[in-house]
Amino acid sequence: MNIGQIININKIGNNEYGFLSFFESNNDIPFEIKRVYYIYKTPVKSVRGFHAHKDLQQVLWCPHGNIEILLDNGINKETYNLDEPNKLLLVGSGIWREMKWQSNESILCVVASNYYDESDYIRDYEIFLKLIKEGYWNGN
Ligand code: T46
Hints:
By secondary structure, this protein is mainly β. Helices cover 6% and strands 43% of the residues. The chain contains 1 helix and 12 strands, in the order ββββββββββββα. It has one helix at 125-133; strands at 5-8, 12-14, 18-20, 35-39, 47-53, 58-64, 67-72, 77-82, 87-91, 96-101, 107-112, 121-122. The strands form 3 sheets. Strands 1-9-6-11-4 form a 5-stranded antiparallel β-sheet, with no helix packed on it. The protein is globular and about 55 Å long. The protein starts with a strand and ends in a 7-residue tail after the last helix. Bound molecules: dTDP-4-keto-6-deoxyglucose (T46). DTDP-4-keto-6-deoxyglucose binds next to strand 4, strand 5, strand 6 and strand 10.
């Protein structure tokens, strides 16, 4: 079972002039984009995240650099390396995530299915495991 889903998007161009990649709501990713944010100037080896979302779906990508994403569904863990600007990672609700910066100047870009809402975050791993056990995300 894959916890996240890699989506390889088009890469148009060449080595002489450079490349262009794009993706569209509902066509390339399975939701309407309501929010965009990005994380930058993060020192190498920093680890961020340590939370899950109750409802939010997100797509992560690294347009420059290399960031390792650990995903945990409470039973299994998987790591994904975001090391190509045209490689997207779809992360659904109910997934614990940790993001580790593998090279300096790496940038993490994210599009989200909803507006920022702190009450959608689960920032305590024990509570996350309890919700998994209770079947909070069953049927998702
Ligand atoms: C996620 C990973 C991949 C806002 O005020 N608005 C926003 O849209 C976001 C994303 C964050 N914030 C505030 C909340 C905190 O006070 O910015 C601060 C840093 O957020 P956080 O510690 O949650 O950052 P990360 O890097 O651990 O997690 C972020 C996202 O918050 C999260 O949804 O999945 O990136």
